[in-house]
Amino acid sequence: MLLKTPGFDALVKAAAERARTCGLAADAIRIATTLDGKVPEQVGRAALGLRERLYVELAESQAAGFDAAADSGGDVLLLTETGKLKVRPEGSRPAEQDYALGAVKWSQRPGSLDRAWSTAGEVQRLQFEEIARWLAARGAEDVRARIDALDHALVHMAPVLLYVGDEQVYSNLGRFANLPGRSLSPGAPGSLLTTLKETPVEQWPAEHAAFVVCLHALISSGSPVRAEEFNGIQLTPDQLITFLEERIVSYGQEIPDLRARSTGDRLDRLAEVCARGRTELLRAGTVFYRTINGVTLHKREQIMREPVTAAELPHQVRELLGESAGRPLPPDTAADEVRSLVESAVERLSRATAPTGFSSGYEALLHRFFATVADAMGCDVVMGRGPKSVAALHSRVPAADRAALATRDFYCCVAPSTSFAGRFADDGDGLARVLSAYSARMRYNTWHYLPHSMSWTQEIPGRDDWFFAPMMPDITNWSDQHHTGHVAFGVRHALRIPLGIVLEGRYRPGIHDLRLMRTSGAEYEPADLRAAIAVGNVQAMFHQAAAERQWEIRDFDNAWYRDFHGA
Questions:
Q1: Is the dihedral of CA 146, 149, 150, 151 positive or negative?
Q2: What does DSSP say about strands 474-477 and 287-293: parallel, antiparallel, or unpaired?
Q3: Which of 90, 156, 280, 328 is deepest in the core (most CB within 10 A)?
Q4: Torsions phi, psi of 441, nearest 5?
């Protein structure tokens, strides 16, 4: 069965073709900014520079027409390779890689249009130049420190793609990359940050100064992965100030009066207040999560206002837990009672004979647990990952041995729902290949997060290839566009619940996780995420109990999937 999706390039091309069929500029704008309904409109519009925003608002308010013949005269709308709508005034030449959508046709061109375009461009230029002067005045040492912080953050996180103004794109994603990440290492000649570090600020384009100052403030305002909240949109001083002030209010803090300060000072101070407010909420037990649009990679932090309880467990999961523990789990059970049931289930597992196809009762329970969740929550696949042996992570193990751990030292248990397995009919080998592919990627993820999860990032010998461990649950839709594996195996809608356990007296985040996935159909909703968090809370209890007993995982490698599902 084919799960592969066309991918991002095909999505952009298809949206451009749809936009060309429109007779009104407003319709073409909507299709282009949303990539034909795959991107929230507010995100797509937030990618526009100030001049472009004013232009499209006028075109919409004046009910301007649209002609797919871009050479018919008039201002031209374009769609860039990165999926951003662009406006090219009449007479300017579009870049070769952009998709020309068509020309805007005014019944009566507003006399204010050219003035608005010019004024907006001047406002944006002055804003960037003020930031550039402020940064230059900070001195070379401060500038280098900011760039070093960006280098460190960008190479240890998921891809970013940001805009500053109408033309500038900053990214570490694939062919768009001009920043360190998977394609470029810190200090590499092709990295823009390398060039900036070697060049006085006075010689930078002002947009570059705005980018450095704004991104540094952004990653200082919370977790470094906060940078992903500006994926696919404009990272400009005015936009960032609004963002930080909204966050400060949402964290229950007061916005300081900084109107007399320079823009750079305001950004640094707001970032500081924002970070402090977020830390206080985390200490108080507030649950944060992120909503993610997989097309733009735009991520948005949210606050879960009500705590998740065991009452939100799907009843099938509650029944499985009660059966495993030997006593029922009422819907109103408190967390301590759930933990007691997990302990009872684990004790029974320790005495149980391994079912056919599994090396232990614990491995069989994990697989059944994920399969039950998949059926209960209408998923195609549910999976969970972790280390095969927590003993290999203990401090008594030499640092060189811990640094040498490879993906084969981790597992991912992947269980299909009944309906997903049925789509493969008699093709057991095909099902095994798909599940093995999901499993292999998640084994790599555990290896990738491990140094940060275990606080090994400064150890010598150590590893430079690591990502910040995930801390927040997230809900992702349309994720089958960029990542090669997601495109190949149709990972369209997903929920991820990072799970940690206590090892040697310290909490280790992201050692395990729970992932729910759909290759098609309905997007996941916040209620699904809450149920998944409730499931993840139970799963984490099992992982903690297994770690304390030093249980090891031997199943769930490629050979196991072939044997278990293959024809």
A1: positive
A2: parallel
A3: 156
A4: -65, -40
* pLDDT more than 90, % of the chain: 85
- Nearest-10 crossing angle of helices 113-138, 206-220: 70
Distance between CA atoms of residues 384 and 374, nearest Å: 12
Token pair listed for 235: 């990272």
- The separation between CA 153 and the C-alpha centre of its own chain, rounded to angstroms, equals 15
Q: What DSSP assignment string belongs to 136-167?
A: HHH-HHHHHHHHHHHHHHHHTSS--EEEETTT
CA dihedral (454, 455, 456, 457) positive or negative:
positive
77: alpha, beta or left? (left if phi > 0; alpha if psi -120 to 50): beta
Side-chain half-sphere exposure of 251, counting CA atoms within 13 A: 28
CA distance 32 to 444: 35
H helices present in 493-551, as ranges: 526-548
pLDDT tens-place string over residues 541-563: 999 999 999 999 999 999 999 99
By CB atoms closer than 10 A (0-12, 13-18, 19+), residue 433 is middle
Measured CA distances, 240 to 221, 295, 300, 306, 456 (Å)? 11, 22, 14, 28, 33
Give yes or no for residue 131 having a pLDDT over 90: yes
Q: Which of 436, 444, 453, 438 is nearest to 543 (CA)?
A: 453
Averaged pLDDT, 228-232: 97
CA distance 564 to 561: 5
Beta strands, E only, 207-310:
287-293, 298-304
Q: How far apart are CA 555 and CA 39, in angstroms?
A: 39
Instruction: Check whether 480 has a pLDDT greater than 90.
Output: no
User: In this structure, which amino acid lies at residue 13?
Assistant: K
Q: 255-302: per-residue pLDDT in tens? A: 999 989 999 999 999 999 999 999 999 999 999 999 999 999 999 999
Given a contact cutoff of 8 angstroms between Cβ atoms, the answer to whether 303 and 246 are in contact is no
What are the DSSP E strand ranges found in 202-321?
287-293, 298-304
> For 37-52, how does the pLDDT look when each residue is reduced to its tens digit (9 = 90+)?
999 999 999 999 999 9
Across the range 451-462, mean pLDDT stands at 94
Q: How far from 476 is each of 171, 235, 293, 522, 526, CA to CA, in Å?
A: 20, 22, 6, 12, 11
Q: Which residue has the higher pLDDT, 331 or 242?
A: 242
Tokens 């092709």 belong to 190
Helix (H) or strand (E) holding 517: strand 506-518
DSSP string of 361-412? HHHHHHHHHHHHHHHHTT-SEEEEEEES-GGGGSTTS-HHHHHT--GGGEEE
Instruction: Return the residue matching tokens 């579009």.
Output: 94
Indicate the pTM of the whole model: 0.94
Taking phi first (over 0 means left), then psi (-120 to 50 degrees means alpha), and beta for anything else, what does residue 63 get? left
